[in-house]
Write a structure and sequence with these properties.
Length: 326
């Protein structure tokens, strides 16, 4: 079974969809901890072996042995990082990384939240920004903002919505998907599929977002169900990771078209592990897949390539609206 998506917790290994470690600062007992290279590297390698999505594509026993040999004489954790980074890249791909300890981690005192704008003729655009904060109150604040913005313009938006994730580089997908729930159908929205074929479904139900049946995020606000209206999704080469998850969730419903350019191609889910010295291992564990379980194959192709996707999307929605009114 895939591990539940709890992107805000990283002192244990949890599936996120982020590509980033979103955990709050972890205080380690570094002053009392004695570094021993074999033990340290073995702990990291065990985690990579258990989770690496591409492990079966490499000669793992040889890769593991080489890493242990390269680090046998290390005097401190940082001397093991180059070898571990190489292993993570081989077993986890380009969405994986080793983040070195940060003595001054960000405080996440402020977040950007979704904002909507009425474009006229029954069309509105909702901007979904990146989200990196690990703080639960920020997850709720972000989701609430999405619902509030949709509710604020729902009476004047009869033709359709534009969801803009062009500048969204990822983070935590939970508040992002929760923020657009009024535009999505109930039921399975997407899945994660690991190297053994095990799947983990992400679904919308009663205004909340669930994974494997467990509640993950939601909003206390309420907005009218607008999942019957057409949706245009704006995407770009900067649309990455969790933002790609947002795009995939919209593929679970009819009446959706994407505009702009192909996405960044980081459509995978990661797990994180904090090492004794505070370094964080981020390893890709699963593919993102649509609601039917078809895995994303790298970048998400755009339906309509355009240098002015906002105008193209607006025109499509207005034309669709006019055709529907005939």
């Amino acid at each position: 079974m895939l591990i539940a998506l709890l992107a805000q917790t990283a002192c244990t290994a949890n599936l996120d969809s982020t590509g980033d470690d979103l955990s709050p600062p972890v205080e380690t007992a570094a002053a009392l901890w004695e570094f021993e290279p074999n033990a340290y590297v073995s702990e990291a390698l065990d985690f990579i072996e258990a989770n690496g999505l591409y492990l079966e594509d490499i000669d793992w026993p040889a890769v593991r042995e080489r890493a242990l040999e390269q680090t046998a004489g290390a005097k401190s954790p940082d001397e093991t990082y180059p070898a571990l980074k190489e292993v993570i890249d081989l077993a986890g791909g380009r969405h994986s990384a080793l983040r070195e300890p940060n003595p001054n981690p960000p405080g996440y005192s402020f977040i950007h939240t979704p904002e909507a704008e009425l474009l006229g003729d029954g069309v509105a655009v909702l901007n979904i920004p990146a989200f990196r904060s690990p703080r639960p109150e920020h997850i709720e604040e972000y989701a609430e903002a999405g619902w509030d913005e949709i509710a604020r313009l729902s009476a004047e938006t009869q033709c359709g919505w534009i969801v803009d994730v062009r500048e969204n580089y990822g983070g935590n997908m939970l508040p992002m998907i929760s923020a657009v729930t009024p535009l999505l159908p109930e039921g399975t929205l997407m899945q994660f599929i690991d190297r053994d074929g095990n799947s983990s479904a992400v679904a919308a139900r009663d205004g909340g977002i669930f994974q494997n049946g467990e509640y993950q995020a939601g909003a206390s606000s309420r907005a009218a169900d607008m999942s019957h209206l057409p949706v245009a999704v704006l995407q770009s080469g900067s649309t990455a990771s969790s933002a790609e998850a947002v795009v995939i969730t919209f593929m679970s419903r009819d009446g959706v078209r994407t505009f702009g350019a192909d996405t960044a191609g980081l459509s995978t889910g990661n797990v994180t592990k904090t090492m004794p010295d505070g370094a964080v291992l981020r390893v890709t564990r699963a593919y993102m897949a649509n609601s039917s379980g078809v895995p994303a194959d790298g970048a998400l192709p755009v339906h309509t390539a355009s240098d002015d996707p906002l105008s193209a999307a607006t025109e499509w929605l207005r034309e669709t609206c006019e055709m529907g009114s005939r």
